[in-house]
Write a structure and sequence with these properties.
This protein is of the alpha+beta class. It is built from four helices and eight strands. Strands 1, 2, 3, 4, 5, 6, 7 and 8 form an eight-stranded mixed beta sheet that branches. The two termini are 20 Å apart.
Length: 262
């Protein structure tokens, strides 16, 4: 299928699967929910309207997209501590699960939020409708709402969109798009092992087993009815050409984009 290619890079990003209450976790790679949320924000869809069903197909506007993630740089997990509710009068502070107010001595709640620092992911977004992909590409270049990587404080680096619609986005991930690595490949090696996450069984690995089940398929983004379903994922390690690495990835990406521009 045709597809778009996004490069997600930022000093901070977070992709929670079970993010709730005082502990907000992150998966080690972008979730489907976060990526669909990013596309919906680019198109100017509110949380209530992001997954509105298409009357012709009966599906939400992103259900036919297939995501493949190349893990250039996994980053490091970092836990940030926040406090909530401190300093407020008793009946203006935090409530308990029963609906009553927390005691004044316990009015400050410490929360933990986990982030990925200095991570980079290159993602193919494939779909059967090339015109729809072109529409998404245009919106990503001129988004209606601010884009962020999991949380509002996590602003993506540039470039975010690598070209427009590619005929073979997986081939681009494996053979052409420069790698952003934390360290150069080992001397004397023609390939470098890079992790991939697939939503569908990779055809070039017929014996690959499903490694993960994650609850990140969005059913409803509305704050009071937020719901996600579970999906299976496949993980592989691909031997990519070592020459895709460069100590100056932004320069290499600029050269790649100039070549990709018709």
């Amino acid at each position: 299928m045709n597809g778009l290619i996004l490069r997600l890079a930022s000093p901070w990003m977070s992709f929670g699967e079970h993010a709730a209450f005082a502990y907000r976790d992150t998966l080690p790679f972008p979730t489907r929910s976060a990526l669909i949320g990013l596309l919906a924000a680019a198109e100017g869809r509110s949380r209530d309207e992001a997954l509105t069903l298409d009357p012709e197909t009966g599906h939400h506007p992103y259900s036919q997209l297939v995501l493949t993630i190349r893990i250039d740089r996994p980053g490091q997990r970092h836990t940030d501590f926040h406090t909530v509710g401190g300093g407020r009068p008793h009946k203006e502070g935090l409530r308990t699960s029963k609906g009553t107010y927390r005691a004044q001595i316990k009015s400050t709640l410490v929360t933990r939020r986990v982030y990925l620092t200095d991570a980079t992911f290159t993602i193919a977004i494939q779909g059967p409708d090339a015109r729809r992909l072109e529409q998404l590409a245009g919106r990503l270049e001129q988004p209606a709402y601010a884009l962020y990587l999991g949380r509002r404080a996590c602003i993506p680096d540039e470039p975010l969109l690598l070209g427009t619609v590619h005929a073979d986005p997986i081939g681009e991930l494996r053979n052409r798009i420069p790698l952003t690595l934390a360290a150069p490949p080992r001397p004397g090696h023609d390939t470098v092992p890079i992790g991939f996450v697939w939503e569908q069984p990779p055809t070039h690995h017929p014996a690959a087993q499903s490694h993960l089940e994650v609850a990140d398929v969005p059913i409803d983004f509305t704050s009071t009815r937020r719901t996600h379903h579970t999906r299976r994922l496949w993980r592989t390690t691909e031997p990519l050409p070592a020459h895709l690495y460069t100590p100056h990835p932004l320069q290499a990406l600029t050269h790649y984009l100039n070549q990709a521009t018709p």
